[in-house]
Amino acid sequence: MSMNTQTKLKIKSALELILTENIVNVSRGLKELEKNADVSIIEILVGIIASSSNREIKKEILTFLSNVIDPLSPSLLIRFIQEEKYAVIRQELLTVIWNSKLDYSPFIAEFVEIAIEGNFMIALECLTVLENLTGPFEEHQLLEAHLHLREYISSDRTMEDDQKTTIISEIALFIREQKEQEEIDLPLE
After folding, report:
1. What predicted TM-score, i.e. pTM, was given to this entire model?
2. Kindly report the CA angle at 37 between 34 and 42, in degrees rounded to 5?
3. What are phi and psi of 39, to 5 degrees?
């Protein structure tokens, strides 16, 4: 039996343990995935979080996802956060991101958009994520973030929720500071 087939069997076995929704089995399955899994299992785990009603199991899987170090996982998690079918766990997925050791700086505009589209708690989570991004930020990302903010401010949505509008103002201040910082860092010709 080739190692590739053996690894696939181990992943399948680990996922079967997780799907039992027994916390002991879930922990064992996640430990096995730490050794053998690749980024392909992230969507399966996100689906389990979305469908499970067991808070303990959700917490275990969210912690596991926070520790994933595959460089492909940030773009996947951003995609899942933006998908409507995962809206019920959007806040939890944002928590995974700000607990992650991976760099989500390339997604600054996406976080601004998610904050604007979400409720107060989503906006607050996005602010936390943004404040923890290390940069540097690409000029086009900052411009896109700025455009999202400008669109929000010119819409009627600013009247919907004072708390959220306060958070969006904090995000706008953060974006402005980053734009100013990037301008300072540009070499003079």
Report:
1. 0.87
2. 100
3. -65, -20
